[in-house]
Amino acid sequence: MLKYIKHNYFPVIGLLGLLAVNANAAPPQAESCEQIRAQIKAQTGVLPKPDTTMLAKLDAQPECLFSTAEMYQAAFGDKPMPKKEHRDDNDD
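Structure (tokenized):
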């Protein structure tokens, strides 16, 4: 009976060991700010819909301090930024 118990736990112990090794593995390298800026500049043409994958990359790197223009180009490509409308709220 003791042999059966020892052999039955061996796969479980092996699996736990593999999980522990994977847990200590290094996380994937994040892209540098320069690499992301190069990807933004490579966005050519007007995109049919916003590039949410690229926006997620920008959001994950707050230390890069991307400008509004860079974020807009990352989302929409070469689509011109909308002009700011000046509103005069003084109805006096």
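The mean pLDDT is 75. The chain has four helices and no strands.
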